[in-house]
């Protein structure tokens, strides 16, 4: 996790904003939204969602 985080920080510091951590391209749901009315209506994920995932991962011992 630390390595992925460091990689993401380095990528952002370089000015590259179209890539995610470890150089993955940004994930797009554009095509899926065109063919799925359900997906099109979903709200974007938020920082609250991310915080809940991290809290869960901590609770199950992922970061030990």
Explain the layout of strands and helices.
Elements: H1 2-13, H2 30-35, H3 37-41, H4 47-59
The helix-strand sequence is HHHH
Characterize the quaternary organization of these chains: single chain
Q: For the residues shown, what is the average pLDDT?
A: 86
Overall radius of gyration:
15 Å
The residue fraction in helices comes out at: 55-70%
Number of strands: 0
Specify the structural class. mainly alpha
Low-confidence stretches: none
Outline type = flat
**What is the count of helical runs?**
4
Q: What about the largest sheet? A: none
Distance between the termini: 12 Å
Q: What portion of the residues fall into strands of 2 or more residues?
A: under 5%
Total number of domains: 1
Key terms:
64 residues; single chain; 0% strand; mainly alpha
Task: Walk me through the structure.
The chain has 64 residues and is mainly alpha-helical. It has four helices and no strands. The chain has one domain (2-59). The longest helix is centred in the C-terminal third of the chain and has 13 residues, at 47-59. The model has no long low-confidence stretch (mean pLDDT 86).
Summarize the structure.
The chain has helices at 2-13, 30-35, 37-41, 47-59.
